[in-house]
């Protein structure tokens, strides 16, 4: 997202975002630009609508670390409507998805920080899937917790392997997660 740590924290702590009137007008302007002035002359239709929704979700959560499969299923009700929403300047669905993302992100930050206060057990033979782009969406909160438990453990171990002291590891990771 290209945010500084301060901007990221402010984003998480801010109230729910809602579309303003100008966003509707901007949405309609973008449609006109795409359909009439773009060199490909693309048409905003149901096929592109699904691509727009999928890309938006992929931009927000490329490693499938925040949304769960039930969220993706809920978003799918809009897969053939995003084009109509954009044409009509109705951007609420995009804001709803983003606000849920913010909520899920804050929950994951809280979870990761809590994990740092737990004792790390490296006796279990397990592997963290670093690149989760092609992974399935976690089925539920328990599965998402397990992904994040492994992530925190992996991050901790990576710093431990370069001889960071436990206090310093915790400090570094707290800062990273916040």
Protein model, in words:
- This protein has 8 helices and no strands.
- By secondary structure, it is an all-alpha fold.
- Helix 6 packs antiparallel against helix 8 and helix 7 packs across helix 8.
- 63% of the residues lie in helices and 0% in strands.
Unreliable runs: 1-8
* CA radius of gyration: 20 Å
Specify the structural class: mainly alpha
DSSP strand content: under 5%
If helices are DSSP runs of H or I spanning 4 or more residues, what is the number of helices? 8
Mean pLDDT: 86
Overall form: elongated
Cα(first) to Cα(last) distance is 15 Å
Question: Secondary-structure blueprint of this entry?
Answer:
Elements (H helix, E strand, L loop, with lengths): L4 H9 L7 H17 L8 H15 L8 H7 L6 H7 L3 H25 L24 H20 L5 H12 L1
């Amino acid at each position: 997202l290209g945010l500084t740590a301060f901007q990221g924290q402010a984003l998480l702590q801010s109230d729910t975002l809602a579309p303003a009137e100008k966003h509707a007008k901007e949405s309609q302007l973008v449609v006109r630009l795409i359909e009439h002035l773009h060199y490909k002359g693309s048409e905003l239709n149901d096929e592109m609508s699904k691509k727009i929704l999928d890309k938006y979700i992929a931009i927000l959560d490329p490693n499938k670390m925040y949304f769960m499969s039930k969220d993706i299923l809920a978003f799918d009700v809009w897969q053939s409507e995003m084009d109509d929403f954009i044409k009509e300047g109705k951007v609420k669905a995009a804001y709803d998805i983003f606000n849920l993302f913010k909520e899920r992100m804050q929950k994951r930050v809280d979870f990761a920080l809590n994990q740092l206060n737990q004792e790390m057990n490296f006796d279990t033979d397990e592997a963290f899937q670093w690149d989760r782009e092609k992974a399935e969406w976690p089925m539920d909160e328990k599965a998402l917790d397990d992904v994040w438990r492994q992530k925190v453990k992996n991050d901790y171990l990576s710093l431990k392997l370069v001889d960071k002291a436990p206090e310093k590891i915790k400090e570094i990771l707290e800062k990273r997660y916040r």
